What we know:
Layout: E1 2-7, E2 11-13, E3 18-20, H1 25-34, E4 43-45, E5 56-60, E6 65-69, E7 76-81, E8 87-91, E9 94-97, H2 105-112, E10 119-121, E11 126-131, E12 134-139, E13 167-171, E14 205-213, E15 218-228, E16 240-248, H3 253-260, E17 265-268, E18 291-295, E19 300-304, E20 311-317, E21 334-338, E22 343-345, E23 348-350, E24 355-358, H4 363-370, E25 377-379, E26 394-399, E27 402-406, E28 412-418
Amino acid sequence: MLDLEIVPERSLGCDAWEFVLGMHFSQSVAIIQSQVGTIRGVQVLYSDQNPLSVDLVINMPQDGIRLIFDPVAQRLKVIEIYNMKLVKLRYSGMCFNSPEISPSIEQVEHCFGATHPGLYDSQRHLFALNFRGLSFYFPVDSKFEPGYAHGLGSLQFPNGGSPVVSRTTIYYGSQHQQASSSSPGGVCGAPLPELPLSCYRHQLHLRRCDVLRSATATQGLRLHMFTEGPGRSLSEGGAGRSVCRVVRFGSSAQRVCAALGAPARTYYKADDKMRIHRPTARRRPPPASDYFFNYFTLGLDILFDARTHQVKKFVLHTNYPGHYNFNMYHRCEFELTVQPDKCDSNSLVESRGAVCITAYSKWEVVSRALRVAERPVVLNRASSTNTTNPFGSTFCYGYQDIIFEVMSNNYIASITLYQPEGTRPRYAVNSIA
Length: 433
């Protein structure tokens, strides 16, 4: 049984780890993965067809805890303890819920102090005690009418008849009504705090990515980011600061590292497995492999040419649940403006306006505006030769110098921006703002 500490309006955790309001989904998953054997039977709940309108939920049924994430920002907004019998709970070191201690109204008031009168829902027969950032819900028998003693939110009960907490919610702010529903979909309006400083972890985080383009070609990316403030540690109350950098095609690996810092991982493209069958395979040394810089908190991959070590491709990830790479990247909040190709039909040239594409655009709208007619390439990933992708295939469409990877629900999984072979400069373009 987990023994956890509640911090109203902030977190639920212990000395080794804690779930903090505002933390990213991937950081919560990393905590759970580090507690294999202690936290078991975890479920991830999401809407396959409406991933932006239904909350993203991590359910821990064996511990009676549910983590509810904003579907757009993918950050934690509500912590719900829906089975009090499966967990021990403390506040400021004082235990108020355990197999030996029943979380009655009197026990809660003794531990947390006085509050303003609670709220009674006569239709659901549910009584709520609300503190800032914390609510307790008590099921009440219909024969008891709400009455208050000494200005506190207590009902009048016979001896031994006081109800016990059935559910507890931790949230940001004082809008307890927005977190009062027992269903995950009922907390969509709960306020969302900023990313806590304890979750920065000395990494850059993305606010917005502007794709820089000429009429029909990509030039680079302008990245608006934030990180911890210089010269002050988190324990000293260091604040975040904003950073803006521009990375272009042709920039060297050194320049990219100077602008964005060291990548979270470097990935070398796999060698051609059929090369060993060629007659010249034994006589020629294998060529060097192109390599990616993976920036997971930016939702960005940058591909470098193995020979020149210059940028030749960007991959922007949208991190939708149901995709093969879900939870590897934070969502890249990009804005891509595309000028459609001119259409020549019956000797008449039709002019169309620019199309703005974001991480939330649906492909059916984008393809209609751009009039993408070519058939897609079907992409089916697998973790090994003996396993299949449980999420199914995605579909890749090419347009100008862009490749759109589209999921079966019509949302864009990733966008690849590349520089055509004939347009690459011989020398690096090292202009980084």
